[in-house]
Amino acid sequence: MDILNESVALGVDLLIFGLCVREYVHNRRVVGLLKTAPHYSIDGDLKGIVERRQAEGLPVYAEIRGTVTPRGVPLRSALAPGVSGVLQILKLQEHRVARGFTGFWMEHRKLLFRSANEMPFELRSQQHGVEIVDALGAAVLDVDVVYDHYKLSTPSFHDLILGFFTGIRQRGLQTTEEVLRDGSSLTAIGRLQLVGGSLRMQPSPEAGLFLTTATKSGLIQRFEAAKWPMILKIALCGAVSGFLIGLLAKKLYRKKRQQKEEARIHSRLERERRERRARSRPAAPLSDDQLCVVCATNPKEIILLPCGHVCLCEDCSPRIAATCPVCRGKIVSKAAAFIA
Ligand SMILES: [Zn+2]
Ligand SMILES: [Zn+2]
Question: Considering every ligand atom, which ligand is closest to the CA of 295?
């Protein structure tokens, strides 16, 4: 079909548009929640506040800041000696250049290995603490890179030949280790809960959990800055959608107009044929059994097969397609009948 390409393009564009809008709405919701999240200091009062809000059935989405304190022996860094923390992420990435479909070589990174490890920890301020639950699942997790090593690969002749045919060449391997150090100051924004007399913070279903060494305003700024590329993408996708809808509407309108014109020509030709037939019919009056059984005006002119009944005129014939009006037999074909 001639509108298939435009329809597929419009479908894909609307899908991307929908995803961009969803991303933007999520970004705005997160910014709204971050802005309205009150700051509570970790002290004796916090339990009381959370207890009262919980008793009223209200979730407590708040910001707290404290010192990362492990509950037990802290994790030792695997690659950086002397560094310990409560959460570590090890990554091995391959840097590669791949020939894209345009023929250019583009640099890519491929994650070959990732290992994450965490232990129970809390944010403390003096004598009080709040346990952080599911830190690895945080929407934002700012941790220190304590080890970063890049090893450039030296390709052999065989690798070069292989790379030429597969379109992928390895540049090097990067090993990194990220650690959330114990003793560092951390801002956490999430849902506070009082469970069994102790406070804990976990991801909220609306926005998740945010753990950053920066401040809340810094975090909001980061989300605000991310909104502009989204708006640009939405505007671009919207413009493309508008253009494609316009193109489709134009094509459909033209097609409809063409069909109308064809129908008009067809009916004019049919009318002319009828008039010609009427002129060529015998002028003498016909007896009843010589007249078409449908219109009872024109002579019988068509033979129905296989039953063989001659009972229709040429004008009525197109309207009778399934069964013979005389014997109800199935019509397989029709032919002009010449009665001499
Ligand atoms: Zn007729
Ligand atoms: Zn028949």
Answer: 1
> Residue 65's closest CA among 151, 123, 19, 135?
123
Enumerate long-range contacts of 273-279, CB under 8 Å, 24 or more apart.
274/315, 277/314, 277/315
What is the pTM assigned to this prediction?
A: 0.66
Rounded average pLDDT per 10-residue block, the chain, 340 residues: 84 93 92 89 84 86 91 88 91 86 78 92 88 87 90 81 79 91 90 88 86 88 91 93 93 95 94 85 81 90 92 90 92 86
Q: 128-132 and 198-202 as β-strands: parallel, antiparallel, unpaired?
A: parallel
**Residue 65 to residue 216: CA distance in whole angstroms:** 10
> In one letter, which amino acid is 54?
Q
CA of 317 from ligand 1 middle (Å) equals 7
Return the number of other C-beta atoms located less than 10 Å from residue 32's C-beta.
12
Ligand nearest the Cα atom of residue 308: 2
Distance from Cα 259 to the centre of ligand 1, integer Å = 28
* DSSP output for 163-197: HHHHSEEEEEEEEEEEEEETT-EEEEEEEEEEETT
Distance between CA 278 and CA 275 in Å, rounded? 5
